[in-house]
Amino acid sequence: MASRKIIKKLLQFAVFVLLIVMALPTSAFLLLQDDDIQNRVVSKVMQFVSDKLGTRFTVGSVDMAYLYRIRLNNVYLEDLDGDTLIFSKSITAGIRYIDPLRKSVSIGSINFDEAILNLVTDDEKGLNLNYFIDKLRGDGQKKGGAWTVDFHNLRLEESRFTLKNTNFAPIEYGMNYTDLAAYNINADIRRFKPSRDSLSFYIRSLNFKEQSGLTIENLTSRFSQSKTFLSFRKVRIKTPDSEIRGDDITLKFKSFSAFKSGTFTDSVRLRVDLEKSLISLVDLGYFSKVFRNYDQQLTFSGVVSGPVNNIRAKDISIAFGKSSIFKGTLQFEGLPDIRQTFILADIEQLRTTAGDINAFELLQRRGIRMPEQLVKLGNINYTGNFTGFINDFVAYGQFNTGLGIISTDLLFRPDTSNQLSFEGRMNVHDFDLGTLTDASGKIGNISLSATIDGATVQGKSINASLKGVIKQLDLMQYQYTNISLSGDLNNKTFNGSVNVKDPNIDLEFLGKVDFSDSIPAFDFTTNITDANLYALNISKKDPDFRASFYLIAKVY
Fold it and tell me: Which residues contact 313 (CB under 8 A, 6 or more apart)?
């Protein structure tokens, strides 16, 4: 009987305590609905925060929803220089719990509506936000009556962000790393974890527009940051024209002063590890003006590392056009000025066509255009090296084409008049010269080793000086051997000297041969000391028909 009374008393006490616990937040909620009490509480909070941070902090009004949801309207925080650091039309927080015993508050999510975040970095003071982050982190030790506050999720709607260096310099076009500004920001950020020396969170979704014109339709990533790096892991980026997937995009630097004008390209080290991604040259143009206004796409995968002015790329795979692909390693020294950039390329595979090259605007505007007759080469496969500047480079390697094999050690010099000059050595093996020159009924394959010095203008004409040895030439269904030549090639016209030491002909030739019309034109002198005309398929009447003569000929 006594025990029942004790239990009853305990239950009554428990109910009493529960009612008090419930009544306290309820009472507080009801009291805070009073405008006068609300204004006093807000004023006290503003004064407390302002005193603790040593700067101005204001809140327009507070709305509370029973029990653990609060909304602050027109929130404003100044930085230490008296400029706007943070403003938000409204901030809504969902409180998970308030623990008076441990003096801690846990906030599930914070929503910012039409927020503005203005970050400023100074060569001496550093980032203006660091002071406030340090205040929030504290010194890692609770003191006296100090409370701790943590939150997990962050959402932004129609917000703006700026990051400006005090020594910023305006630029004509593209991304200005000393004056970044993003607007129309909508973001869903999870697992927000600040610590004393770093910050990390998961970007579930993010879209915005940057003042340069770059538009990000969606971005997801695992982000981490410290005073010496910014890192995006498992990145997915979608723009109107690009879809980028990567394991890692990281920027490393000694301090945020590396982002000031004139220092970014050599002070910030990049590491970009991308999976197969679709990239628009329009989007690349915002980061490097060499790609400006090129409305074309390519697919890219590989690892890029180093500062912008000395950047290396390995395990690269680039596909463009209808069937073109590049695989190899690249190094660029001197960016962002492409004309002052030294390029080293180790090409494991380059497969392309003249059509793809001529359709690639980036090469067109640099004066690199394949002559129309080279379309007949079909698929071109190249392995070798590319060394030099965009307007002065050496290509050493081997071309396997639909017409035959060409090995080169050539120096190329494109210029602004759409002329591409070249000089060096080339070796040709079993190449279908007749198909290339539209003379397949008379000319067949050729193998030669020669030096060449010439130019092609707008890809429509070719002029070159040749000197070398033709090891094999199929002409009029006969295969000539041991031919030395020296002269000029102008499209389908040859003007120079030829000496033949073939088993069926001994010939010295000086003059011009023009295959540009349906009927060839000739203007030459030749000395033939011995020629088997039957074997050469010049006359099939008599197998013993041989000739020796000195001839001056003009046929138009």
Answer: 302, 303, 304, 305, 329, 330, 331
How would you label 281-319 residue by residue, b for 16+ Cβ within 10 Å and e otherwise?
A: bbbbbbebbbbeebebbbebbbbbebbbbbbebeebbbb
Separation between Cα atoms, residue 63 and residue 33, nearest integer Å:
8
The helix/strand count (H/E) of the chain reads as 8, 29
pLDDT digits (tens, 9 = 90+) for 27-49: 455 545 556 665 666 677 677 77
Residue 481 has pLDDT above 60, yes or no: yes
Residue appearing with tokens 């507080």: 28
How far is it, in rounded angstroms, from Cα 323 to Cα 379? 9
- pLDDT value for 42: 66
* pTM of structure: 0.70
Is the confidence at residue 165, as pLDDT, over 50?
A: yes
Per-residue confidence band for 371, with pLDDT thresholds at 50, 70 and 90 = low
* Bridge partners of residue 547, in order along the sequence: 531
> What are the CB-based long-range contacts (under 8 Å, 24+) for 102-108?
103/142, 103/145, 103/146, 103/147, 103/148, 104/147, 104/148, 104/149, 104/150, 105/147, 105/148, 105/149, 105/150, 106/149, 106/150, 106/151, 106/152, 107/149, 107/150, 107/151, 107/152, 108/151, 108/152, 108/153
Quickly list DSSP for 61-127: EEEEETTTEEEEEEEEEE-TTSSEEEEEEEEEEEEEEEETTTTEEEEEEEEEEEEEEEEEEETTTEE
Mean pLDDT value across the chain: 81
Query: Rounded to whole angstroms, how far apart are CA atoms 536 and 477?
Result: 8
Q: What is the identity of the amino acid at 37?
A: I
pLDDT tens, residue by residue, 452-469 = 998 877 656 778 898 999
Q: Of all helices (H) and strands (E), which one includes residue 400?
A: strand 392-400
d(CA 265, CA 306): 10
- Token reading at 363: 């090469």
- For tokens 């002052």, the residue is 340
